[in-house]
Amino acid sequence: QVQLVESGGGLVQPGGSLRLSCAASEFTLDYYAIGWFRQAPGKEREGVSCISSSDGSTYYADSVKGRFTISRDNAKNTVYLQMNSLKPEDTAVYYCAADQGYEACVVVTGGDYEYDYWGQGTQVTVSS
Fold first, then answer.
1. How many CB atoms lie within 10 A of CB 45?
2. How many CA atoms lie within 13 A of 91 on its CB side?
3. Residue 122: is it exposed, middle or buried by C-beta count within 10 angstroms (0-12/13-18/19+)?
4. Which residues contact 80 (CB under 8 A, 6 or more apart)?
5. How far, rounded to the nearest angstrom, does the alpha carbon of residue 6 sit from its chain's CA centroid?
6. CA neighbours within 13 Å on the CB side: how many for 128?
7. What is the pLDDT of residues 85-126, one digit of tens each?
């Protein structure tokens, strides 16, 4: 059964860092675009970062640019989201999703795209 599992969330003080992981079972992640999304209470889900399947290009929402870094480790079949300089407004449930579509990363720039596979989410809370 295809499965994505996020981990690495938690409680961190403003200015702190966390690294989220998105691990896959039953399929090879490097054939997929991987998007990281977040949803805060009372807000719509937003795409925050994406790494393409074709050439490994990376994309970031303006709200996280310069603070978050997405990367792949193909040997571990895992995609990471390194989050630095965290702010209270980064508090949300973070999800990773996978899709083989070439345009999957449009979600980071406000486009609509339906991903095939989703993880269960991991909570990130930034608070003092």
1. 13
2. 12
3. buried
4. 19, 20, 21, 22, 69, 70, 71, 72, 73
5. 9
6. 3
7. 999 999 999 999 999 988 999 989 888 899 999 999 999 999
